Amino acid sequence: MNYLASDKNILRQSFQSLLDPVPEQDIMRMADAEGLRGDHDLNPASFPGQVHDFKPAAVLVPIVVREAEPSVILTRRATHMKKHAGQISFPGGRAEAHDDSPVSTALRESQEEIGLDPSLVEVVGSLSTYITVTRYTVIPVVGLVEPSFDLTPEESEVAEIFEVPLRFLLDEANHRKHSGFHNGVERFWYAMPYNDYYIWGATAGMLKDLSERVKKL
Predict the structure, then answer these.
(1) By the 8 A CB rule, do 166 and 61 touch?
(2) Which residues contact 174 (CB under 8 A, 6 or more apart)?
(3) Which end of the chain has fewer CB atoms < 10 Å from its terminal CB, N or C?
(4) CA quadruple 101, 105, 108, 111: dihedral positive or negative?
(5) Which residues pair with 137 in a beta bridge?
C-alpha cells in the first residue's frame, strides 16, 4: 500500500486497510480503559483503570490530498487559552449534546476552529481512542481532505494553521521521547519537532499510533 500517494483512491484504500471503524457512540460509555492509548503509554503509573466519568471528545486528523505529497493540517492554540496554550494540536474538542457521533464532533469542531468545510472531508476511519491526564477520551477521526479549502482560524482558540508533510510524521527517525518533572515525578512524552513547531503530547501520541500502524503492514 502507498500511504504517500497523491491519488485519493489509493490513499483511501491504504488507510482503510489500517484504521479502525469510527465508534458510533461515545467511548466514555466504556468502563474499562484497557487497550486504549494515552499519556500512560510512556507513564504506566498514570493508567486510570476506568474512564466512565471521562469527558468525551474527538479530533480530526486531516490528511490533505496534495499533488506533490499528502500533508497533515495542524494548529497552534492561542496563547491566551486557559489550557494547553500555544500547543500544537489537531482541530477538535469536547463532544456536545447535539453531536450524534464522534465524526459529528470532529467535523463540527474543525469547521468552528479553522473554517474547514465538512463537505471537503472524507472520513476513512479512526485511530485508537486516546485518554488524557485531563480526563478526556479523545477519538482521532482520520479524514482525507480536498485541497480546495480556504481556512480561517477562530482567533479565540487558534493562533495559527499550518501543514506538515505526512512523510515526515510517519518517519520514525523524526520521533523523539522527551521527559520533564511534574510535582517531583519524571514524566515522558512523544515529540516530533518540525521546524519551529514542537509537536508533542497527545497530538504526537496519536501520530505515533498512525506511524506504528503503517509500519506493521
Answers:
(1) no
(2) 168, 192, 193, 194
(3) C
(4) negative
(5) 56, 131
> What are the grid coordinates assigned to 79, written together?
496563547
| Domains, the chain, with CATH or none | 8-165 (3.90.79.10)
Which residue, 124, 92, 94, is CA-closest to 110? 92
Q: What would the grid cell of residue 186 be?
A: 519524571
- pLDDT per residue over 89-112, tens digit each? 999 999 999 999 999 999 999 999
Q: CA 203 to CA 210: how far, in whole Å?
A: 11
Question: Mean pLDDT, to the nearest integer, of 177-191?
Answer: 90
Alpha carbon distance 101, 133 (integer Å) = 23
The one-letter code for the residue type at 192 is: M
Confidence band (pLDDT; 50, 70, 90) for 86?
A: confident
